[in-house]
């Protein structure tokens, strides 16, 4: 580990237990049977702990989409050319993508970050954190050098800000192959079980993708000895940036709504590097990417939503913001039995 990455291991604060207890006590006093609102109740308690406030609010939302290309994509793992990454980064800046439409409904602070595209991406609003045109092909060599990994992680750290909730999105042709390889290495999974169709590849391409990942894991087996090594050897610039952003947000005391397959890979690696961040990570939705449920099961996490989405960009996480806001609304605005004049037997 280089000295510049020591920040990764700094402990995140623990959520405020007194505020959690006060919020849980309030839930028991609201005019409903205890537990009747299910996860809406636990979300409110979680956010009370995050904010140190028994009546929390979600008003300041930060959404950052990280984009980068992957060397593995040159081996036929995607239906789309790498030029799409560059085009989508420009679309994010022009406000025309799905994540833009969803983020606007919450008046979110939005940013798109370019970590390196084969076809150069340009827009005045695009944040330049370019490391290289793409990672290396991890089926032949390590995806990143140690210096490149450090730059990507730090680029994510720089996007961490004081807010009520952070969401990180991803864009990168070839990134489902990287995420699948990372999950397989981190949790010792069969590649065929964790690898999906990504952009919608056919059976032959899926078989080829699985074989590439299997050969890569065999090639690098002796070096995959830590979460940071897994990220460097198999990951992508944007996945590493998400990892850095998630760790830095938790260290700042900011909760993270984790999006789909790629964001979950970043969260899993981040939690393995620094377990203190885990309480700050809430998993937003179950991606339609076939390996996502297996990955969430390995983490012991149940997502808030299941809408058969697999777009990435942070879209599923921004949709989950509506659920969080309504959980906090009912927690804060419902009457207690006492306020409603309803006697309750002890």
What does this protein structure show overall?
The protein has 14 helices and six strands. It has 346 residues and is α/β, with parallel strands linked by helices. The protein has a single domain, classed as Rossmann fold (3-Layer(aba) Sandwich). Strands 3-2-1-4 form a four-stranded parallel sheet, with helices on both faces. The chain has a two-stranded parallel ribbon with strand order 5-6. Helix 2 (39-51) packs across helix 13 (315-333). The longest helix is centred in the last third of the chain and has 19 residues, at 315-333. The model has no long low-confidence stretch (mean pLDDT 96).
List descriptors:
Rossmann fold; alpha/beta; 4-stranded parallel beta sheet; 346 residues; 8% strand; 14 helices; two-stranded parallel ribbon; 46% helix; single chain; elongated
CATH second-level architecture: 3-Layer(aba) Sandwich
Distance between the termini: 57 Å
Contiguous helical run count: 14
Q: What percent strand?
A: 5-15%
Q: Please give the oligomerization state of what you see.
A: single chain
**Largest sheet, strands/sense/barrel:** 4 strands, parallel
Strand tally is: 6
* Structural class by sheet pairing and helices: alpha/beta
Mean pLDDT: 96
Task: Calculate Rg over CA atoms.
Answer: 20 Å
With strands numbered from the N-terminus, the spatial order across the biggest sheet is 3-2-1-4
N-to-C series of helices and strands: HHEHHEEHEHHHHHEHEHHH
Low-confidence stretches: none
Domain module tally: 1
Task: Estimate the helix proportion, in percent.
Answer: 40-55%
The CATH class designation is: Alpha Beta
The CATH topology: Rossmann fold
What is the molecular shape? elongated
CATH superfamily: Nicotinate-nucleotide-dimethylbenzimidazole phosphoribosyltransferase (CobT), large domain
